[in-house]
Amino acid sequence: EEGALLDNLHRLAGLPTVIVQGRYDVVCPIVTADELVRAWPAAGKGRLEYVIVPAAGHAATEPGIRKALIQATEKFNHGGPAPAHDEKSGLELGGELNDAGGGQISFADQ
Question: 83-91 long-range contacts, Cβ below 8 Å, gap at least 24?
Fold first, then answer.
């Protein structure tokens, strides 16, 4: 249903959230992610991180998006940080996403 996510954001306010957005995504344009972040309930903005991957589009298979998604997922992993190198994909995964607590925007390095 149109607007369902924005209408129900109050349900997500207490959950830690990372939004990963490719700068050149034409499937889900960056303006939609910006709208979502602006609409995020104030009570939950401290648990929201908005990551813009500068040289990426929509696909999770793009190196910058993949790296940002893996690093975001690892933030929720209580078992420790991600390995510096992913054997399966051959990607170098070292480094942390810029921690932009408080709902600020961070840019993932590529």
Answer: 91/63, 91/66, 91/67
How far is Cα 10 from Cα 84, in angstroms, rounded to an integer?
36
Q: How far is CA 50 from CA 40, 41, 84, 95, in A?
A: 11, 14, 22, 17
**pLDDT number for residue 61:** 94
Scanning the structure block, which residue is given the tokens 């249903």?
Answer: 1
40 burial class (0-12, 13-18, 19+ CB within 10 angstroms)? Answer: buried
What's the whole-model pTM score? Answer: 0.69
Output the CA torsion sign for 45, 93, 78, 20: positive
Confidence at residue 75, expressed as pLDDT on a 0 to 100 scale: 84
Profile the chain (110 residues) by mean pLDDT over runs of 10 residues. 90 87 96 92 81 94 94 76 52 42 48
